[in-house]
């Protein structure tokens, strides 16, 4: 039985370290591979594994027009990912694609849900300070990861969304 490259790669002693961003576990491994007739080539491999069980959670979204969409989502996804993957009708949502450079994925949570969410990072607080319709239960969808206990929760999109990356116009409900 001949080993595959990846089997050999992960057996070899080389730099290997895990790191976590949000609730996603990354494993990064680096190695130098000898090639015939040339110098060593550095090979890097990163593996992303969601730390969730992959169970389905029911989440209700209420858009700017008051229309409610109920979707089953995989535990471990961000709410921004859910809106994009499920193609929900939310105008202007997620303009920066989750890089914390805008506040277009601004969502308003029920207080009972908000109180259980992980604390905000400073960058999220800064972006929310610039958001329209800020409430005491506002969060950015790109920073909230769906967990099993959220099953059945309802989140609301504010009436106005503003892209903080230099655009001055706001997306408003009709």
TrEMBL record:
The protein, known as: Ferredoxin 1b
Record keywords, A-Z: 2Fe-2S, Electron transport, Iron, Iron-sulfur, Metal-binding, Mitochondrion, Transport
PANTHER family associated with the record: FERREDOXIN 1B, FERREDOXIN/ADRENODOXIN
Organism of origin: Sinocyclocheilus rhinocerous
Matches recorded under Gene3D superfamilies: 3.10.20.30
CDD domains named among the record's database cross-references: fer2
Family: Belongs to the adrenodoxin/putidaredoxin family.
GO cellular component: mitochondrial matrix
InterPro entries: 2Fe-2S_ferredoxin-like_sf, 2Fe-2S_ferredoxin-type, Adrenodoxin-like, Adrenodoxin_Fe-S_BS, Beta-grasp_dom_sf
PROSITE patterns per record: 2FE2S_FER_2, ADX
GO function terms (MF aspect): 2 iron, 2 sulfur cluster binding; electron transfer activity; metal ion binding
Cellular localisation: Mitochondrion matrix
ATP-binding found in the keyword field: no
2Fe-2S ferredoxin-type domain segment(s): 57-161
Biological-process GO terms, alphabetical: P450-containing electron transport chain
Cofactor: [2Fe-2S] cluster
Lineage: Eukaryota, Metazoa, Chordata, Craniata, Vertebrata
